Amino acid sequence: MGKGYYISKHLATAAMVLAAIALVTIIALSVVYNREKSKNAAKFTNATTSPVPPTPKTSNEPWDKYRLPDTLSPEYYNVTLWPRLVKNVNGMYIFTGISGVMFTCVKKTDLILIHSNKLNLTLFKGHHAKLTGQSGVTAPAIKTTWFQTEKQYLVIQLEGKLKPGKSYWLYTEFTGELADDLEGFYRSEYMEDGEKKIIAITQMQATYARKAFPCFDEPGMKAVFHITLIHDLETTALSNKTENVIVDETAVTRTIFGPTKKMSTYLVAFVVSDFKYISAKDKKGVRIWARKKAIEDGQGDYALKITQPILEFFEKYYNTSYPLSKSDQIALPDFNSGAMENWGLVTYRETALLYDPRTSANGNKQRIATVVSHELAHMWFGNLVTVKWWNDLWLNEGFASYVEYLGADYAEPTWNTKDQTILYDLQRAFAVDSLTSSHPLSRKKEEVNTPSEISEMFSTISYSKGAAVLKMLSEFLTEPVFAKGLGVSLTAVDQTPGVKLPYSVHEIMNRWILQMGFPVITIDTRTGNVSQKHFLLDYEWFVPIKWMKKHQVQDQLWLLQKSALHKPMKVSKDEWVLANLHVSGYFRVNYDLGNWERLLSQLESDHQVIPVVNRAQILDDAFNLARASIINITLALRTTKYLLHEREYIPWEAALRNLNYFFQLFDRSEVYGAMQAYLKKQVKPLFEYFGIISSNWTTVASGHTDQFTQIIALSLACSTGVEGCRELTRSWFKKWMQNPHNNTIHPNLRSTVYCDAIAAGGTEEWNFGWQMFQKATVAAEAVKLRSALACTKVPWLLNRYLEYTMNPEKIRKQDATSTIGYIASNIIGQPLAWDFVRANWDYFFKLYGTGSFTFSRLISDVTYRFCTPFELSQLKRFQKDNAETGFGSGTQALQQAIEKTTAKIKWLAENKEPVLQWFLSESP
Ligand code: BES
Ligand code: ZN
After folding, report:
1. Boundaries of each ERAP1-like C-terminal domain copy (predicted)?
2. From the CA of 269, how far away is ligand 1's center (Å)?
């Protein structure tokens, strides 16, 4: 069995054991693959510098280590919690709890370490816990108990030793604050019928279960949980399992839940609320919960409709039945991440679960399908089979991020979601994996210790590179073999008839998992020479290259060395080669100039010969090769010329992202005007096309992704000033302002229209938007307004809006960082947001520092536009000034920002002039 992997001893089925082993084998050799590891050693340490002072060498006490010792193993917990949904005499919201844990002693010890954070523990004879032995064993007396607050331990030192093989019962009573901090057991507030409602909810991942009750809070420390909640008569309590008993006592209800399966602490969840649910008879055990108004309004219907098919899909895919007897999904008004895969009680941000056909866009609907699919994928992968420690998180999140598209595709087969992975995984991953501050997917367990370091594991690398690399594996094995391999063993597939691999699965995968970055494949069609190179480092991968020659798909090629001659790739002057067919591989491709030219003319004469995802990838590769100065920038710019004929979403989206990068580099310089003129010319046919098929913008396109393209057409046409566009959007908004109760703007187009109108308008438009935001009863609508409010060009409005992000009455805490991000993406808002974040650094650090992964987003958002030496010096100064406070889970993000800014400065110096000249020459 692979080192570093934990597999529950009580797996439901043998198949899942094998599935786990299969994925384990992918990285099993990681431990012995020292060559690449040592190459990266310097980078690793650099990237994970922790703000917490290193433990002094002299202290070797167990409580000074972040990892629990292997002396004790929990069996089950009995936890009773009572959240108070009204303020106490001190004006605080609190919860009280009692908890017992039965654990077995594995190694002789006189010390109990158990996680406990911010809990106020009751004293029993001067100690914070009681200890008793089980089945006739006498427990040693407690000598002393104390808190190691930095490591978040309750330390219990004993007079004598615990005996291996014997079990003990540790009992605690405690109170905690039911704060609005989005961590552990916390409260959420919302208004209903003019009345303020309070609910109590949880978010345990990654290190917050210890904030709800004392526990052995590591993913490998699985146990059975018996949970009881005490709550007001008119409220409902939910947890991972179905309730066994509900007793109405004199003033409260006691809900006792059945024992869970053996599971990790981070997957525990409970909710006390007055929410309502919907279910359907044929959908066994599936319920969708939300605010009463939202349920009555039908906002849960879509989630209910897709949940059952998605569960069925994964049952088939994993060849294992859904492991639990019920599946609750609940939408919460305050939630830090998008969603959380608590076993049997999945929690969501409202926008990730609730859909209102009258006001939500089709993009909102797609988001729901993919998020639900992602979280349900975890019900098997992640929850049933769990990584032992957070260093291997990429497997968990990368896998779910890959299969979420398969599940969503099953529920919505006409949406083409699978193709979109190249935008949302591959290209996103490339963007950070091309930096020297990147890191390999696999991390040593010793490198991940503090809560901030754990939080940093929830990164684009883990999610998106993980997904892209697993997708590549699935593509070169073929999807049926990959899925089957999950049920047997991926090493066994080496022997599957029809699968010919040059090396074993783990030998191939190790290169992708243990080395950071990705290869650029260069194909010289004059000679047929194929070679690979990393942007910066001396690495080598085993690269599966699917490819085509003009009109003909060819056999897959494996590039196993730095460079090899592959005669079939030598082509004549009227042919071309296209590699990474269907973008199944995690690499970029470059060609000799002749082949580039021939690809460009193919695009311009008949682009449909080239698969749609490859059209997008040609663009993205070209722009990024140019940013790395591997090819000329004018070559990259020329890949956008064919867009005059392009009507598909994925290439346009890829183009837009690369052009946006240009916008933010150039919108403060003279290049801007010429660039606008060129883009206006390029988007005009698309705008006119959609004008026709939407009967002059009164309807929307019928195809799902066509609707996305329609949005691009409108927003790019308006931002580049295509005649008639702004008139349209502004008249729609005006009409709404005149009749606020009747918003006739199509939901798909609202984001664009709101932003455009608020940008063009002044205080009146802004105030109207703000009012509508406050009144919005559908979360997706509120987000559209919240982001549009950041579009104003009026500095004082932007500054006031920034202030609002520190006031939870105005902007919910869950939305603070993204709101600042929206403001920072506005050319006028950027410097204001940067000043604001710097000035309030301590506040944000306290609010988001240790845990939240939104914190790294905050840093990357406010520095996204940086491209001048002055901005770089500000960044470095900021890093220096706050070295003492540190950057917590934003440490990597800050390093990436410095590296990106440095690269942009250098690139701009060399490329600004040719870019200007090119746009001038191409402008009408
Ligand atoms: N397990 C995560 C949620 C999470 C993220 C908890 C970070 C703690 C820290 C969940 O499965 C997840 O990945 N959620 C995503 C949405 C998903 C569709 C990619 C999220 O919250 O953004
Ligand atoms: Zn996930």
Report:
1. 576-901
2. 15
* 108 occurs within a structural domain: yes
For the CA of 455, the closest atom of ligand 1 is: 9
Same domain, 806 and 922: yes
CATH of the domain at 100: 2.60.40.1730
Q: Which of 769, 793, 817 is the last residue of a domain?
A: 793
Clarify whether residues 134 and 195 are in a common domain: yes
Task: Tell me the β-bridge partners of 588.
Answer: 520
Closest Cα to atom 5, ligand 1: which residue? 337
Torsion sign (Cα): 295, 300, 305, 307:
negative
Query: 20 alpha carbon to ligand 1 midpoint, in Å?
Result: 21
Q: Is 687 inside a domain boundary?
A: no
- The finding on whether 338 has its CB within 6 A of some atom of ligand 1 is yes
CA 701 – CA 333 distance, rounded (Å): 32
- Evaluate whether residue 235 is within a structural domain: no
Query: What total number of domains does the chain contain?
Result: 5
Same domain, 30 and 108: no
- Residue 129: phi and psi, rounded to 5, are -160, 165
The answer, yes or no, to whether any atom of ligand 1 lies below 6 A from the CB of 855, is no
pLDDT at 29 over 70: no
Q: Is the CB of 337 under 6 A from ligand 1?
A: yes
Identify how many contiguous H helices and E strands the chain contains and give both numbers.
30, 31
490 & 431 share domain: yes
DSSP letter for 806, please.
T
Q: Report the nearest atom of ligand 1 relative to the CA of 371.
A: 18
Q: Is there a single domain that holds both residue 510 and residue 433?
A: yes
Does some domain include residue 436?
yes
Measure the CA–CA gap between 570 and 568, rounded to whole angstroms. Answer: 5
Which residue's alpha carbon is at the smallest distance from atom 21 of ligand 1? 338
Is the CB of 372 inside a 6 Å radius of any atom of ligand 1?
A: no
CA of 853 to the centre of ligand 1 (A): 10
Q: Record the tokens describing residue 190, joined without a space.
A: 């919302």
CA-wise closest residue to 18 among 375, 385, 378, 315: 385
Q: What is the DSSP letter of 820?
A: H
Q: Which of 565, 587, 610 is the last residue of a domain?
A: 610
Pick the atom of ligand 1 nearest to 378's CA: 11
**Omega into 41 within 30° of 0, i.e. cis?**
no
Ligand 1 pocket residue status of 371, Cβ below 6 Å: yes
Binding-site residue ranges for Zn(2+)? 374, 378, 397
Domain containing 411 equals 5-57+400-514
Cα(803) to centroid(ligand 1), Å? 28
Give the three-class secondary structure for 76: strand
Q: What is the pLDDT of residues 479-505, one digit of tens each?
A: 888 988 876 655 556 666 667 899 999
Rounded Cα distance, 288 and 503, in Å = 47
Over residues 587-604, the pLDDT tens digits come to 999 999 999 999 999 999
The pair of structure tokens assigned to 505 is: 């699965």
Which residues are the active-site residues? Answer: 375
Ligand 1 pocket, 388 CB below 6 A?
no
Q: Residue 514 — very low, low, confident or very high, per pLDDT cuts 50/70/90?
A: very high
Assess whether 834 and 778 both reside in one domain: no
Q: Based on the fold, state whether residues 533 and 589 are members of the same structural domain.
A: yes
pLDDT of residue 247: 87
